[in-house]
Amino acid sequence: MTGRRRPSSPRPFPRALAAATAATACTAVLASLLSACGSLPGAPGGSGEKEPLTVMTWAPVDTKATNMPGMPAMAEAYARWVNSRGGLDGHPLKVVTCNEHNDSVAAARCAQRAVDAKAVAVVGSYSQFGRSFISPLERNGIPYLGGYGVSDEEFASPLSYPVNGGQAALLAGNGRQLASVCERVSLVRPDTIQGDQMPALLSAGLADGSRAAAKDVRAPEDGTDYADAARRALDGVGAATGAAGTAKGAAGATGAGGCVTATLGERTDTFFDSFRRLQPDGSKVRIASVLGSVGQALVDRTGGRAGPLEGAYLTGWYPVASDPRWNPMRKVINDHAFGDNRIDPADPGVQTTWIAYTVLRAVVERLGKEGVEDITAHTVQQSLDRSAQAVDTGGLTPKLRWRSEDMLAVQDFPRTVNALVTYQAVRDGQLVAAKEGFVNVAGTLEKPRADG
């Protein structure tokens, strides 16, 4: 809870006086409890402050697969910051968080908690179990605003308002990025329902650069050793390894022009460790990934410029973390996260949460200007659906709007309104822009795709 602190009760009266001065005691002792004696100035229901707004942010924490603890932590820091400035258009912001556990049942329970809490929106959350969480939200009219973009339902449900192009944009963008430097590509991806879509998306980007479809290498989402996947990936780009050392691949090549891209979330570093051990001496195979699977923290942890990720090609949704457009977020983290090490400003989950709450704030302020003081899930939804006024995220995304005419014609992802990505690379141990500005992959996503 992040609402305004209530003032401490004054020193209690002696018992002998308390019985004789009940009315005074009620005013002094029970004011902080908002009793029948009256409300404190600025407290909910009192003068100078509007009703609190409750929102939910969920993400998986402490699981064996992908974890996103920075998302609920960023939400809590945002609430502390905005409440220190008077709330959202005068409404104190209350953030309820939930551990989604990377589990379909837990995801549904988080959604039900949002319903029980009368949340006006679920904001900046992560779950790959869209089927589990979206139904309770739809039944109760609760918008899902700025989810991470990892489930299909985020780009299909009329109650979902994505701020990025999700996994689809990242994979299509990564394919386009690699098409300029790779003759052959292997994709190492999780053996899950979500992972099953990745090969077709990556290959669509490769096709835009007149490259062949990627070699599909399935791997366990929570694996501890990826030697087998690494062997298959190397074989897919013509750089197979044998027991005696380097061996030529099926095409007789030694890996020149080959790229291996891995999208295994938190297990991506485990894969690249196995890959490094098996990569043939002198191999020219390049490595790649998407932001969220690889980030600056991983680059640092694996040796920086001397590590295995030096030279890697990466695709993200947003500008690089060093871009000054992130300075407002960094200031909020510095001033209101109190050294919370769960929050990494370079993490795309944290960044997505910041953008999602930026949108929420704009919507609430817009409703206030329209004279709407009773902010509910319904009024938030109506504003998102109908307003012609786009939300400015400070250049971190294009201006965002979710009217029907703003939706892109993207196969299987009809709620997409933002198909911009960024090309990044690891150079001298730092993630830097490999291409200035955004790259629009809408055209790639709108083309018919073969099944992966």
UniProtKB/TrEMBL annotation:
Pfam families given in the database record: Peripla_BP_6 (PF13458)
Reply yes or no: does the keyword Signal apply.
yes
Domain Leucine-binding protein spans what residues?
Answer: 65-411
Tell me which domain of life the UniProt entry assigns to the organism this sequence originates from: Bacteria
Keyword Repressor in the entry? The reply is no
SUPFAM superfamilies reported in the protein's UniProt record:
Periplasmic binding protein-like I
Q: Can you tell me where the transmembrane regions are?
A: none
Q: What is this protein called?
A: ABC transporter substrate-binding protein
Lineage start: Bacteria, Bacillati, Actinomycetota, Actinomycetes, Kitasatosporales
